[in-house]
Amino acid sequence: MPYTNEEGGLLNNFAQEPKVYPAEPPTTGQKRNYIILGIAAALLVGGLIFVAFTVSNVN
């Protein structure tokens, strides 16, 4: 644990800060994967709504 000494001999224990680095923009492959996953999620939600609607309207 990293301790710091203050005036008067007091010890303080501070959290270790992570290294900061700039974010990199997504590559074309990552963009393609995001689009594919978005389409799959939309189809899944649409399918669940369709099933719920179909089951709730049973006569």
Please, could you describe this protein's structure?
With 59 residues, this protein is mainly alpha-helical. The protein is 49% helix and 10% strand. The protein contains one helix and two strands; from the N terminus they run ββα. Strands 1-2 form a two-stranded antiparallel sheet. A hairpin with a 5-residue loop joins strand 1 and strand 2 (11-13). The chain starts with a strand and ends with a helix. The model has no long low-confidence stretch (mean pLDDT 88).
The neighbouring-strand order within the major sheet is 1-2
Largest sheet: 2 strands, antiparallel
**Which sequence of SSEs, written as H and E, runs from N to C?**
EEH
Uncertain ranges: none
Per-chain topology:
Elements (H helix, E strand, L loop, with lengths): L2 E3 L5 E3 L14 H29 L3
Antiparallel strand pairs: 1-2
What tags apply to this protein structure?
single chain, about 60 residues, mainly alpha, two-stranded antiparallel ribbon, 1 helix, about 50% helix, elongated
Offer a quick outline of the entry.
By secondary structure, the chain is mostly helical. It is built from one helix and two strands, in the order ββα.
